[in-house]
Amino acid sequence: FLDRHGIIDADTARTLLAEARRTYIHPAPDAPDGSPPPDADSSTTRYTPSKKLQALVRAGELCCTFPGCNAPVWQIDLDHTEPFDHTDPRRGGPTDARNLKPLCRFHHRIKTFTSWQDHQDESRTAWFTTPTGHMFVGNAFSGRDLFNKLFPRRSPDHPARDRLNTQRDNDFRRHQRAEKRWNDANPPPF
Fold it and tell me: Does residue 165 lie in a domain region?
């Protein structure tokens, strides 16, 4: 995959790599329970991710993760899904690959300063909820699909998928009940 060009053939890749300066990204393996490795550095309590972490997160996506946006990933912000707590960094969202996703500046501000909400599931898929309660998946196809060594695959029947489906269904039903209560309390004027 070549930024701004898309997927390229093997001959073109070999030609470009012949004289290219290379950087290799080797993510640290997680423990079997999904927790970060014990030797993970303390950069999770800093707001700004390290250059290595920025490269890892950006390599996992192809563009802005907001639904329908295709801003190039190497020119956009990295957003904390769970907000970073500047007053007590250990209490807020960590600065790690599981809590970061790329958003262009426009969508980063929309998500931060409006009532749009987001969350990421265990397979790092970003989900966005509109102010009206509709839920959309971010990018259906990501860099992790091309570079599958960046993130271990989970089977389709993984228990996390059931939990996330249940959570989405519950959120949707809760929103429908709130909307019905509001409509019942505020009937139309005709």
Answer: yes
**Which distant-in-sequence residues (6+ apart) come within 8 Å of 87 by Cβ?**
none
d(CA 147, CA 51): 19
Q: Choose between 183 and 23: higher pLDDT.
A: 183
Q: Which tokens is 121 given?
A: 């599931």
| 24 found inside a domain | no
- Judge whether residue 97 has pLDDT over 70: yes
- Per-residue pLDDT tens digits for 42-73: 567 888 888 888 888 887 788 899 998 888 88
Domain total in the chain: 1
Confidence of residue 39 (pLDDT cuts 50, 70, 90): very low
Number of C-alpha atoms within 13 angstroms, CB side, residue 132? Answer: 2
Q: Is residue 27 part of a domain?
A: no
Alpha helices in the chain (DSSP H): 10-17, 51-59, 105-113, 143-146, 159-185
Give dist(CA 117, CA 180) in Å, integer: 21
CA separation for the pair 82, 117 (Å, rounded):
10
Residue 26 lies in a domain: no
Range of the domain at 112: 44-172
- Pairwise CA distance, residues 92 & 83, whole Å: 6
pLDDT at residue 40 tops 60: no
Taking alpha carbons only, the member of 49, 32, 54, 57 closest to residue 124 is: 57
